[in-house]
Amino acid sequence: MSNPSHIHLEAAKRVLREAANCGSNLLLKQNMRQQGNSSSNVDEKNHGKSMIYFIKVIYFVFSVKGVFLPANTKTEPHPPKNGIWNLEVFLSVIFEAGPRVIRELAVSLSFKSFFQLQLQELAFFSFAFSHRVNKSREYPWEIYTLKKLLHATNNFHNDNKIGEGGFGRVYCGRTSEGVEIAVKRLKAISVKVETEFAVEVEILGRVRHKNLLGLRGFYVGGDERLIVYDYMPNHSLITHLHGQLAADCLLDWPRRLRIAIGSAEGLAYLHHEVKPHIIHRDIKASNVLLDTNFEAKVADFGFAKLIPDGVTHMTTRVKGTLGYLAPEYAMWGKVSKSCDVYSFGILLLEIVSAKKPLEKLPGGVKRDIVQWVTPFVQKGAYDHIADPRLKGKFDRAQLKSAVAIALRCTDSNPDNRPSMLEVVEWLKGGVRRRRKSVTKIEDMVEKEDGDNDETFYDFEGFRMAQSDLRRKRARSKKI
């Protein structure tokens, strides 16, 4: 008797080959049309319908474990009600044949949102199984069952709800093994929801860093899309700055600095160590979670973008949170690493001051946190910037340093903003002694020499670089 899994595999391979052939023919058609050759009789519309059909087949073949598509099936299959995905077999097919199919189908993204959704999920599942096959200690995540997650969260009881965002709710829970987890339950399935799910799981599956929220696994089935994370007992940064824990003032000055440095290190890892590089696009206080020791964990990668080497920026639809968006991104959709740097600068000001990024003034006028802080900086009134709940228990020099760094990050010109690597170094109290670093601050030194204004850049990293520059000037005069 034939093995059902084997029949699954062979039938789906045939379907994938046919889908790839359709994609190849469509690509040929488009190339010939671009070259002005009208001799092709390929019916593009029929190819589009065929490709959508084949994608449906791939999905429905694996709807229920043990149910398979016979080789001679000609009628369109229908997904069984309350079906459970045979993921291991499905992913094995996608992993083996998926990359070619994805390449061939990428030429036909004009087939509206349904087809875009199918292509996206193919890419996601191809990624997912490739990591499961090569699973190591570096990627310790799993494909959960719905039963296990329902048991862990008490059937997603409202008492277990710890947060809610634009795409879904987050619940805390405990597995039968005693492991505390957080589960994001995405809202009703749509293209946007599927996009966030696919992007977030793919990004979290790629990265591993002490300051990024860890992925434990996920579940896909029916109308459910669930992402499982490490549980963060101290909740989010926004809870301590503006929420239910703000009055307790659990964030003393050393903790705030540690949170700022940790968040910066997580972003620097995304920007400079991961290949392809990752732009988060939604850095804000609610997306910085805190573990037992109040160490920062950057979270929520639903809006993230992968940036290949050599690409400096991309133009895309604007997503994110008002108050944190870089001007060039908010106005023109131009996204780059500098956009994350700008958002981090806003976050840094928020950490030290506990002011919201955007506040409404009488008369309906809105003022951002940079506009609020600038007059105090110009007057040197840093005590008015610090969170009053600190009651003066902060290092004034460190506060000035943090504010100066934040203002560099929020420069309206993205070319003038530092990289996250530089931000990490400055926050830790040092700048690399390189000519590039010295050159960047030359105009600042001249400004300081001219008007004796030391309110903006009075922190150790800049002082070291300024000393280097002055010594070089002195040597050049002697020569």
From TrEMBL:
Residues 156-427 form the Protein kinase domain. This is PTI1-like tyrosine-protein kinase At3g15890. The keyword ATP-binding applies. Keywords: ATP-binding, Kinase, Nucleotide-binding, Serine/threonine-protein kinase, Transferase. The gene is LOC111290221. PROSITE patterns: PROTEIN_KINASE_ATP, PROTEIN_KINASE_DOM, PROTEIN_KINASE_ST. It comes from the Eukaryota. Belongs to the protein kinase superfamily. ATP binds at residue 184. The keyword Protease does not apply. Pfam families: Pkinase. One of its GO terms (molecular function) is ATP binding. Transmembrane segments: none annotated. Signal peptide: none annotated.
